Amino acid sequence: MVPPLALDIDGTLTTPEHTIAPRAFPLLAEWDAPVVIATGKAFPYPVALCQFAGIPERVVAENGGVALADGELRYAGDPERVDAAVEAFEERGGTLGWDGVDTINRWRETEVAVSRTADEALLREVAAEFDLEFVDSGYAFHLTTPGVSKGAALAGVAEVLGYDPSEFVAVGDSENDASTFETVGESYAVANADETATRAADHTLDRGYVDGTLDALRAVRDAETE
Ligand SMILES: O=C(O)COP(=O)(O)O
Ligand SMILES: [Mg+2]
Prior knowledge:
Elements: E1 5-7, H1 25-30, E2 35-38, H2 44-53, E3 59-61, E4 66-69, E5 72-75, H3 79-91, E6 112-114, H4 120-129, E7 133-136, E8 141-144, H5 150-161, E9 169-172, H6 178-183, E10 186-189, H7 195-200, E11 203-204, H8 209-225
Parallel strand pairs: 1-2, 1-9, 2-3, 9-10, 10-11
Antiparallel strand pairs: 3-4, 4-5, 6-8, 7-8
The protein binds 2-phosphoglycolic acid and magnesium ion.
Magnesium ion binds at residues 8, 10-12, 137, 172-174.
């Protein structure tokens, strides 16, 4: 039997051009164990990805703030504290940095994502003041509640699915995946992964982005079926 999977989206299931690679879909749809999409993105994004990939909606979103598996929806974190921090950031001249309609945060319920072009020093200062974690996914800065993480949420999802977290194999690319890597039994950092993710992972892949992820999944599958 193949192991259950925890897969990050940005930098892991995407191409260097930030697009989802549909060539990953058949492997995911045919995977003979649960596939959990674990992302920093707001809840609707991984849900839509599951729908379009043809897999059940098993999702960790918002860096662990929201988790859904087999009809069970769980929330974690302190959204009021995050809102207060955003208010302070904006009062001091900071902007979230998303042009036009902010579709990055519009459906976000438990944390905030800020453009990496925003004032990082000010955002770090506000995070410290409001006792929030500053997380850099490589795609956005996030302010999250301490104790909330993809890994912690994945442990809850594993329980719902009837697995031990150590049975999971994970692939990811950035510091918001380190908690996942610490939670699962076997972890892979794609070649484009940041230092934190690479250090936390059991293996580093030769190729980056979705190509590296597909290499890892094929190797895991082939090892199980040998
Ligand atoms: O939302 C982000 O900043 C990055 O998303 P990811 O966790 O799927 O890489
Ligand atoms: Mg990522």
